[in-house]
């Protein structure tokens, strides 16, 4: 498994200031080979499962309501209803099967959560260099020596 490095993403806030966030670029394969979505995800180590807007399911040819109905709870008091599916996601040349919940809410961000991803990679947030590293789990031996 190859190591992957992603630069942080950039977004402009309402007050016109620039903010950076841990991001990963991915290609999501739809139900047919002609249906592919390229996207930037916010990497959220506090999120259990990855989340996508419900409209992405339609773009990918995934029948939204055929997934398992799921309630997603965020930091606020609001619960969101979504549908759980498994998608094929490619980061550079590494392809994984990733559980996601499609949520029908206009403010839904594309979020990479821990499930299905953090078991496969050792994820390192390098704030000083504004990058996220997806490391081969075999690299853990180097980190274990530090602790």
Radius of gyration: 16 Å
Unreliable stretches covering 5 or more consecutive residues: none
Helix content: under 10%
- Under CATH at level 1, the class stands as Mainly Beta
Number of strands: 12
What's the name of the CATH homologous superfamily? Acid Proteases
Strand/helix succession = EEEEEEHEEEEEEH
Continuous helix count: 2
Give the CA-based shape. globular
Mean pLDDT: 90
User: How is the biggest beta sheet arranged?
Assistant: 7 strands, mixed
Architecture overview:
- The chain has 147 residues and is mainly beta.
- It has a single domain, classed as Cathepsin D, subunit A, domain 1 (Beta Barrel).
- 9% of the residues lie in helices and 49% in strands.
- The protein has helices at residues 54-59, 140-146, and strands at 4-7, 9-12, 18-21, 23-29, 36-43, 50-53, 68-73, 79-91, 94-103, 111-112, 122-126, 131-135.
- The strands form three sheets. Strands 4, 5, 6, 7, 8, 9 and 10 form a seven-stranded mixed beta sheet that branches. Strands 1-12-11 form a three-stranded antiparallel beta sheet, with no helix packed on it.
- The model has no long low-confidence stretch (mean pLDDT 90).
